Fold Alternate-type signal peptide domain-containing protein.
Amino acid sequence: MNKLTKAALATGVATALLVGGGSTLALWNDAVDVGAGGDITTGALTLDATGGSWSDDPDQWVPGDSFTYTTQVSIVAQGDNLASELSINPSSITGTPALVDALATTMTVDAVQNGAMTAVAGQENVFTVTPTDATTGTPVEATITITVDFPSDSVSELVAQGATAELSALQLRLNQVESA
């Protein structure tokens, strides 16, 4: 091996040892605080309901019956660009499929305070929740009335006789949706 090749090989090995070994070879670098502002905090989306009451004690329903359940809700919808909707959770009504399918459920909203609840066009039982001020966390409060109908024309012959529908788990749901 000639002297030039030996020198090049020795230089390459020495450089590899310095870089790979983490010893004294330093590569320049720098960092700067860009002053991006303060911390961020998250908002909140919560739903609470008081124990409501039925208009009557529904027990042995027959086609043509209709009962209402009324409750008070309190909704915190706090956050920049937060959009949310309140609806009935249809899967919370369980029981004999023929009877559950025959029932018609509707929801109305009254006495809204600290905001607005507006029916969503084209969607049954869905209301947009809009607080007066989305930054304070002041709850939007309202009276919710859920009507459960057993329409007289929803069944015929022996369909849904002796059937059950479980309404004790009837549930409202509050979902964040894409903001417009």
Notes: The chain has a mean pLDDT of 86. The chain has one domain: 44-177. The helical segments are 3-21, 97-102. The first strand starts at residue 44 and ends at 49.
